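Hi Y.,

Following your request, here is the sequence exactly as I used it, all 216 residues.
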Amino acid sequence: MKLNKTKRGLELGAAITALVYCIFDLILEVVAFETLIDTISFLKKEYVDYYNSYMQSTVIAYIIGFFIGVALVIVELIFACKLLKKPIDTSNNFINIEDRFENELKKRKKTRICFIVFSSILAFVMLINCFQSSQGSSSTTTKIVGLLIFVTVIVLESIAMANKEIHQDVEIAKELAVSNSTIEEKIAELKHLKELGVIDEEQYKNAVEKNIRDIV
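Below is the corresponding structure, written out as tokens. Let me know if you'd prefer a different format.
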């Protein structure tokens, strides 16, 4: 069975893009958090009254937001990694293909939907941050880039989901499986006729060879 290469390429593009950006974003967030901790320690030490009066609630809100953001990015990473895995077995065994892959394809569809949902949430958060950040700052530029990346990820994965999972080769394979089943029935009938003495060994072999040639 051959996978739809276009669908697989779009999905890999979306997953790898999200993966790279999330790792980069996590590194930046950790560095920013360490800087914040150092700043808090300095304010507590040098400007205790100012910190207690004005900064404490802001810092707490930022820390809560930080952990929520990190959690979202980690979940996005998990779903991106799941999408990197090849969706189905590409062996040429077409027997019971629907039964073999139905459950796996259902699970993968759920993963894709979750991936798009979390990508949308992250894009929305970055959009809000863009409006809240100071215009022209490096932070705003980073958030705009992140927003564009996740919009691209959402578009790529949405297009990928719109494509069929596998090529029409599967339909041909199903027809071949039906043909094979029919041939087996014919051979069984010929064997029965030989056992009854209606046809001899040579006629039986010739008939079997003719049926095999018809499907090759």
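The first helix runs from residue 5 to 46.

Thanks again,
Q.
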